[in-house]
Amino acid sequence: MELSNKNLREKEFHNKLQSKPTGRFENIFYKAIYNSNEDFFNFLETNASNSEILDYGCGIGNSLTKVIYFNPKKITGIDISEVSIEKAKKITSSIANVELSVGNCEKTDFKNNTFDIVYGTGILHHLNLNTCLNEIYRILKPGGKLIFIEPLGTNPFINLYRKLTPRSRSEDEHPLVGSDFNLIQNRFIKMQIKYYGFLTLIFFPFYNSAKNSFVFKILKNLDQYLFKISILKKFAWSVLITAEKN
Fold this sequence. Notes:
Blueprint: H1 5-19, H2 34-47, E1 52-56, H3 64-67, E2 74-79, H4 82-92, E3 98-102, E4 115-121, H5 129-139, E5 140-151, H6 156-164, H7 178-187, E6 189-196, H8 199-202, H9 214-226, H10 230-233, E7 238-244
Parallel strand pairs: 1-2, 1-4, 2-3, 4-5
Antiparallel strand pairs: 5-7, 6-7
Helix pairs in contact: 5-7
């Protein structure tokens, strides 16, 4: 497996992260973008049946254990972290149509036109975006779809928090900005971006479980109304990106 210095740093960071007995402190904030995960899995449930799917940067397998119930033909998972892959293998050992391996997402061993769907959560911003977009394009079948949840890098307050807590993330990660979306749009067709995490993040202490919270439901609906105003999109925390290979 050929790895750049950046790849090696990411590998070391995620091996250490997944070797810790507890998760990051920042995990408490993720309930603020619960609705991004709802939309992510709704998309996959609609499109996964009888599909060849790649979990791109699969981590410890949290997503694929849900996607497997959407009747895909096969799910392949790849991740640079050996520790993550070992954890993922343990929770998927009884599932026949899942195949996991350690690998470099920027330069995979998959053949051209292999997958109907490539998906990931919080992976693209750890990679050289242009390189991985070319790789995703290569391994997707014509008409194949991609879907990713990624952090946005335009909220000045979130960026300040990131600057003040450098040890909570890898040194090379780069939350997405406008030029990154241009790269995706230039490579794929039918790109759509949906924004999440403005009021739901500001007022996250006012609800516990986002899934069953009336407060969260109101806030997420207000967010989607506010995100119709272009300038307010910059204050989102996260985006859901979908696109297709022509």
